[in-house]
Design brief:
The protein has 410 residues and is mainly β. It has one domain: Porin, CATH 2.40.160. 8% of the residues lie in helices and 49% in strands. It is built from four helices and 17 strands. The protein has a 16-stranded antiparallel beta barrel. A hairpin with a 2-residue loop joins strand 7 and strand 8. The radius of gyration is 22 Å and the shape is globular.
Length: 410
């Protein structure tokens, strides 16, 4: 914690020096603040952003004020530092989450401290397009998850992502890019601890019960997108020719200690200790396709998560290792008008395994975004209808949700 405080202190002094000295920085809004050492031995780029969110939610059969709930919050508030050290081939990235939603909660598995660190890794470009990443960052999972939360088409990601994504973890990753004529391909492999970001409790099952292994392949048959457009939502570059990317990920989390693998509650006893004897492997398959052309964009994703072994019942018939397993499908599309206003629509369906006891979920979302300065300054709103169906009784609960969000990042 003292090191983190020192880091903030140095960053504050740097910002204060620039402000008091009225130095002119060679940058522009949305591009961050960039500095390079006089001897070119290192560089640092600093970015900050904030999302202010207003949300209303109500049962569809009771939209009066009595049945409505509201939430005003800072959805995300983040700092990012990136650059190179010693050589342009040796890069680093540090990402910090400052809002309550970013912390991820305090528990014994993180020594009861706030989980501020999102990303902290070093990458080395050791041969041609091959890189090795060491540290904590996003795993090469579904496209919607890997796309920055700053660059989304809607106010937030879909239910498919929240239920089945593999999020961030600590470990080592290998990245590569190979082109075959006009066809571009990308490959990624990762070996991680498997318990999510910044897990510090030495009594957790890792490494005795195994790590997590992830592989991803992407194929871009029509060539690369303009300005890395396959990793931001909406066709802000207005592709002159059709562009498409197909991606598939396979992930196995050996003896997963959490209900979602890298996320969710721990499979633990009353003493907050992970129950090693009931853990099993989680297998995750993720597939996606992204298409962009002249302002139109389409993203479709499929997710499936399954257990290698069955669920185990405890006293009273409750399930001890009730992992979140099942299938999810998400399809979303939007069209960017000439005035940078984008209407969009999203359809999502979640089908949990019957044995999990969880409800079916179907959601339709209508969105409207105004891009003032790309994803760095935008106003977004969306309206959703959610239907949750009990898989045994077939009873339904229907909810309506309205969200309004302002994003600013520099």
């Amino acid at each position: 914690m003292k090191k983190l405080q020192g880091f903030f202190f140095v960053a504050f002094l740097f910002a204060a020096d620039v402000a008091m000295g009225q130095q002119v920085v060679e940058s522009s809004f949305g591009k961050g603040v960039y500095v390079v050492a006089s001897d070119s031995s290192f560089s640092m780029k600093f970015n900050a952003r904030v999302q202010s969110l207003l949300m209303f939610e109500a049962p569809s059969d009771n939209i009066s004020m009595d049945g409505m709930t509201s939430n005003w919050l800072i959805r995300r508030s983040r700092l990012k530092f990136s650059g190179f050290a010693y050589s342009p081939k040796l890069k680093y990235k540090i990402g910090l989450g400052l809002s309550n939603r970013d912390h991820g909660g305090e528990n014994v598995h993180t020594n009861n401290t706030s989980n501020l660190i999102l990303d902290a890794f070093v990458s080395w470009n050791f041969y041609k397009n091959m890189e090795v990443w060491i540290g904590q960052t996003k795993l090469p999972g579904n496209r919607e998850r890997v796309i920055s939360s700053q660059k989304l088409q809607f106010v937030d990601r879909s239910l498919v992502n929240s239920r089945f994504n593999i999020d961030r973890d600590m470990g080592v990753q290998f990245r590569n890019k190979v082109n075959f004529g006009a066809v571009a391909t990308r490959q990624a492999l990762a070996i991680s601890q498997g318990e999510g970001r910044n897990r510090t409790n030495k009594n957790d099952p890792n490494p005795l019960n195994g790590f997590e292994y992830t592989g991803r392949l992407e194929i871009l048959p029509l060539g690369e997108f303009t300005g890395k457009g396959d990793y931001f939502s909406s066709d802000l570059k207005r592709e002159e020719t059709p562009k498409v990317s197909f991606g598939v990920t396979y992930d196995i989390n050996k003896n997963a200690a959490r209900a979602g693998g890298n996320l969710g509650s721990y499979i633990e006893d009353a003493n907050d200790e992970v129950i090693d004897s009931v853990l099993t492997d989680l297998n995750t398959v993720l597939a996606d396709v992204l298409f962009k052309y002249k302002g139109f964009s389409l993203l479709a994703e499929y997710a499936n998560k399954s257990m290698t072994e069955g669920r185990i019942e405890g006293a009273g018939g409750s399930i001890i290792n009730n992992y979140y397993t099942g299938t999810g499908i998400n399809v979303q599309a939007g069209y960017l008008l000439k005035n940078n206003l984008e209407p969009s629509i999203r359809l999502t369906k979640i089908t949990p395994e019957l044995e999990s006891g969880r409800d079916l979920q179907e959601m339709i979302t209508f969105g409207l975004s105004k891009y003032i300065k790309g994803h760095s300054l935008k106003v977004q709103t969306d309206f959703s209808f959610l239907t949750e169906t009990n898989q045994v009784s077939l009873t339904e609960d229907k909810t309506m949700m309205f969200r309004f969000q302002v994003e600013m990042g520099f």
